[in-house]
């Protein structure tokens, strides 16, 4: 029995990673192709509409479904109850989005937003109907079905969207792409599940889970604001064109964070759980994951920050070059985010649940205040405002965590010195490279040369710095060995 359960966990973990990776890779490729045909304004309008849809998913649908997923022995009647209430909520929210589209477009000073909102309202219904199926599949560790759903729906929706954009249908091709992907995702999950829900209107269940629903909804709201508040502020202050540029910059930089840092954070959960209340084990696990995450994330984000301009020209075209400075700023933002998110995981593991909530609220308020002050400097001013909010909150988060774990500057230096020194020298080397290369080189050649330089420079500096630290303390080498052992969670 235990062997079967272990196999289920291993298989589920593998397919969950495949699902996440496939979504990121396919979405990025489709986005890069569509960017060749469409202007930033079209993506800005879609980003605004997507913000409303994300709100319904993480604040409403997840709040209804998550308490059932956490139940010890959920049954099909509970899943049918989730389906019923998510369906009712989706119909109400889709209607609200459709009929308020004119008012919202006036608020954002974007007349073309009305049609986009009305078209995207269909996706809210699809996401509401599919939520019970997703909850049922997750609870039964059926992640393969979810991965297959994601791959096919994103791929087919992307092909249709690219075909429409290539034929000159403009921003509506993005709307059709999103609606087709969400609708096809619903059909595939229904077919794979071989389960049809029935309508269950049970107010007793609602009263039983109302506290959990409220708690999940509040957590989802705070998370939504911290993750998407920046795009919302950009759209309110600067309009669709700047929002489209910011969306591209965020997708480019967040891809590194989502693939690497978020995967390491998933590994952190069992590590922190196994450590329990053992502060020494928690400290060692934290430093290990911290060092490995920074080792992987830092050079990629530094590369994006320095070579943002040729990277944008090669991948998306010259019309997107105004997004290059924002990519450089957001690279710093996600470098800090990979640290603070791991801190939040450890706060939760140590039963300090309120600390991340208060820090998140403080960061949100600081970002909004700084954005209001520096909006006159345009997109780069807002981007640096979001980075500034992170920089102001991070020392508080790290100081509180250091006190809990008994950490000091010396231990943090042992954990981060090799990738930190390597990243600083990498940035300096790439900057010098841009100054000395001939002006007649193509952007492709510039990027290729930068890749070659980074592959030679960063590992060399990390190896040299790591060896020097080993003379004093072997902790960083132990981290690398421990990092190699993390593969047992996936194999």
UniProtKB/TrEMBL annotation:
| Chain coiled-coil ranges | none
Query: Where does it reside?
Result: Cell membrane
Would I find Transmembrane among this entry's keywords? yes
- Predominantly, its location class is membrane
The membrane topology of this protein is: Multi-pass membrane protein
Question: What's in the keyword line of the UniProt record?
Answer: Cell membrane, Membrane, Transmembrane, Transmembrane helix
How is this protein annotated for GO cellular component? plasma membrane
Protein name per UniProt: O-antigen/teichoic acid export membrane protein
Organism of provenance: Glaciimonas immobilis
